[in-house]
Amino acid sequence: MNESDLLERISERSAHLHGRGAIVIGPGDDTAVLALPGLTLATVDHLVEDRHYDATASIDDIARKAVARSVSDIAAMAGRPVCALATGCLREGFTRGDELFERLSSWAERFEAPLAGGDIAISPGPTVLTVTILGRPHEVRGPVERSTAREGDRVCVTGALGGSLKSGRHLRFSPRIDEASELAGGLGRALTAMIDLSDGLGRDAARVARASAVRVEIDARRIPRHAGVNDWREAASDGEDYELLFCVAEGAAVPSSVGAGTPVTVIGRVVRGAGCVIIEEGGAAHDASALGWEHRA
């Protein structure tokens, strides 16, 4: 199927989106037309063949991850998705474009971010998928930033960490949209800061510390680990967990679980100073900023 035929199939498959929710005009015109009152969240992320997935990944898993990565960014600010835009630069010889975009559309619908438009190109490779998500902030709390943690906050995480790549969870994780919304609704301004753990607990917690001009101290013994994760260092370094790390003001009650039973664990505190450290039982403190995954040129 050539590019024009594929675009036509996508347009036909998306005709039902016209007039749905925020989408006034969807795929098939030069641009989408959206009705977005008030503040709008906007995020974009890539999914690159042989870097974010390999030849063993199914088309369904590739499509799911491409959408879910950006939806997770909306969750990190306690928002909810409104719609998505997707582009695909497909490697030459790739013959499953229609299936890929059908699954992208399906997962976007599943995550309540219907595809409002996009584009397709062909190149020597690798295949690169880019998904933009627009969302709305929490109606009461508003956007939760990473730069507003305060001295005295407790540092918490949802779920368990580590082993995402070797287990395949990085392809099938569920963005914590409902969990984030519940935290924002229940804690209000006591939910002081939040980030999704895409690059590893150590590196992402250090980003909160740097952005908020505080010091984050994490108790190594408290870090929740998936089965098969050997130690705290592996749990803090593996990346692609897509759990939420968030800060709760001193004196506010931290829920034991959120969403459909997702556990919450208090793993540390915010203090005066700078940087982020993980402290072992004997008191040894380790710089957390290098513990995680980083893109390299």
Mean pLDDT: 92
Strand portion: 25-35%
Inertia-based shape: globular
Question: Number of helical segments?
Answer: 8
Number of domains: 2
The CATH level-2 architecture of the largest domain is identified as: 2-Layer Sandwich
End-to-end distance? 33 Å
Rg over CA atoms, rounded to whole Å, is 20 Å
Q: What helical percentage do the residues reach? A: 25-40%
What's the count of strands?
14
Helix/sheet category: alpha+beta
CATH topology of the largest domain: 60s Ribosomal Protein L30, Chain: A
Which series of helices and strands comes N to C?
HEEEHEHEEEHHHEHEHEEEEE
Please mark out the parts with pLDDT under 50 across 5 or more consecutive residues, or reply none.
none
CATH superfamily of the largest domain: PurM-like, N-terminal domain
Largest sheet: 8 strands, mixed
CATH class of the largest domain: Alpha Beta
Explained architecture:
The protein is of the alpha+beta class and 297 residues long. It folds into two domains: 134 residues, PurM-like, N-terminal domain (60s Ribosomal Protein L30, Chain: A), CATH 3.30.1330.10; 134 residues, Phosphoribosyl-aminoimidazole Synthetase, Chain A, domain 2 (Alpha-Beta Complex), CATH 3.90.650.10. The protein is 27% helix and 28% strand. It is built from eight helices and 14 strands. Strands 7, 8, 9, 10, 11, 12, 13 and 14 form an eight-stranded mixed sheet that branches. A hairpin with a 7-residue loop joins strand 1 and strand 2. Helix 2 runs parallel beside helix 3. The two termini are 33 Å apart.
